[in-house]
Amino acid sequence: MSQHDLLMRHKAVMPKWLSLFYNEPISIVSGDGRYVVDADGNRYLDFFGGILTTMTGYSVPEVVDAIVDQAKKMIHTSTLYLIEPMIELAERIAKLSNIDDAKVFFTTSGSEANDAALLFATAFRSSNQILAVRNSYHGRSFSSLAVTANPGYAATNLSPFQVFYILGGSRIRGPLAGLSDSEYIKRGVADLEDLLSTATSGQVAALIAEPIQGVGGFSLAPDGYFGAIKEVLDRHGILYISDEVQTGWGRTGENFWGYESHGVAPDLITFAKGLGNGLAMAGIVGRSEVIDAIPGTSISTFGGTPLVARGALANLEYLLSNDLQANSAKVGAHMITRFLNETKAIDTVADVRGKGLMIGIELCEAGSVVPSPAIASLVLEEAKSRGLLVGKGGIAGNVLRIAPPLSITLEEADHGIDALVEAIAAASKSL
Ligand code: PMP
Fold first, then answer.
1. The ligand 1 atom nearest the CA atom of 244
2. Which stretch of DSSP H or E encloses residue 371?
3. Per its UniProt entry, what is the enzyme's top EC class, as one word (predicted)?
4. Measuring CA to CA, which of 36, 235, 294, 348 is 20 to 30 A from 44?
5. CA of 99 to the centre of ligand 1 (A)
6. Residues lining ligand 1, Cβ inside 6 A
7. Where are the domains of the chain?
8. Torsions phi, psi of 18, nearest 5?
């Protein structure tokens, strides 16, 4: 079966809004370490890791062995019974969360984790008023879409919440463009104070925010921004939900969770992607009184099953025992420095930013901050032809997203940087 024939079958049976990368989309059939292979046998260095999901790498023997061992014993039981690996994983995550008296609830996706967090927060506060951040992405379910501020993902204009958007997002255009860190923070806090007093009833349930906006193009507020925002929230009793779906598990290098660089203590943390290294493992960790606030009883058929919990435990153990957070800090800093230096002379590169192994390169029309999604698409093609996969994002789709598995070596990183800088130069010339 050729990849082209597979594309035809995909188009016939999958929804038209399910987006694909590349003019000739590829079918990835295997992977090892930081590399994947497509159905035609082409090998690629993967700088996107299944959208920041392949955290420790492809086919890590310790993770695979745990999954195979569990699959042979039993794949599924339900939360009506005691599941030891689920309990053990919850204990470890509760400890890692830095939240006192934390409880954990497992789901199967980041969208569902955010749904649940919003459910808990609205129940705890008896309010359906929610604050979110402009340029955010929190998922594709009904309530996670409702707090997503990205016109490209506006699948519905209906909402279970009344949502108010605080300032955040791009630092090169919009109301916060060009501001110093302290001015940015001051402006954001003043805007929040104004929003709370002029637009809300005062009884707001929660703020949901990504420490670094993922789909929004790896846009990041200055360190301390959400700490300053939280001081206002605390005065009003408003909860703080940190969506760590992309930023958790040491991805940002300097910290285990993205929220830590803001000096803030969240009430709820949502996680997904990297924990399962590709298994459907996600959830919420947070203050027990908030998580326990919903009335009635509940179950989850698929959240935290023995198979995914064993895989996630092995994956987490591998991450911690190999200190991949430190690797993310080291390799990430090297990558950002090289990208900054080597794209300086390319006038379509408007911004290089990020932390650890979460690096964004914003592409614009030459010498401007006018987004150029066309260049970004071309770069993806040029990189692919050089054996490198990268992601893209941002509201206009003009930001390259570089987020390899946290186990990437310096040598692999250098190899990918060489290819990507060449690809950006080639794409910029050809437009
Ligand atoms: N939150 C963030 C920050 C995300 O990046 C994503 C997925 N890109 C989600 C939530 C939704 O996760 P999922 O696709 O697993 O539903």
1. 3
2. none
3. transferase
4. 348
5. 22
6. 51, 109-111, 114, 137-139, 210, 214-215, 243, 245-246, 272
7. 3-59+323-428, 62-322
8. -80, 100
DSSP 381-417: HHHHHTTEE-EEESTTS-EEEE---TT--HHHHHHHH
pTM of the model as a whole: 0.98
Residue 213 CA to ligand 1 center (angstroms) comes to 11
Separation CA 124–CA 205 (nearest Å): 8
**Ligand 1 atom nearest to 136, measured from its CA:** 3
Question: Atom 12 (ligand 1): residue with closest C-alpha?
Answer: 110
* % of the chain residues with pLDDT over 70: 100
The pLDDT value given to residue 430:
87
Instruction: Give the Å distance between the CA of 155 and the centre of ligand 1.
Output: 15
Q: What is the per-residue pLDDT across 176-225, written as a single tens digit (0 to 9) for each?
A: 999 999 999 999 999 999 999 999 998 999 999 999 999 999 999 999 99
Torsion of CA 238, 239, 245, 247, to 10 degrees: 80
> Does domain 62-322 fall into CATH 3.40.50.720?
no
Of ligand 1's listed atoms, the one at least distance from the Cα of 144 is: 10
CA distance 40 to 59: 20
Q: How far is the CA of 140 from the centre of ligand 1 (A)?
A: 8
Q: Which amino acid is at 208?
A: I
For the chain, count helices (H), then strands (E): 13, 17
Pick from 251, 431, 417, 430: which is nearest to 341 by CA? 417
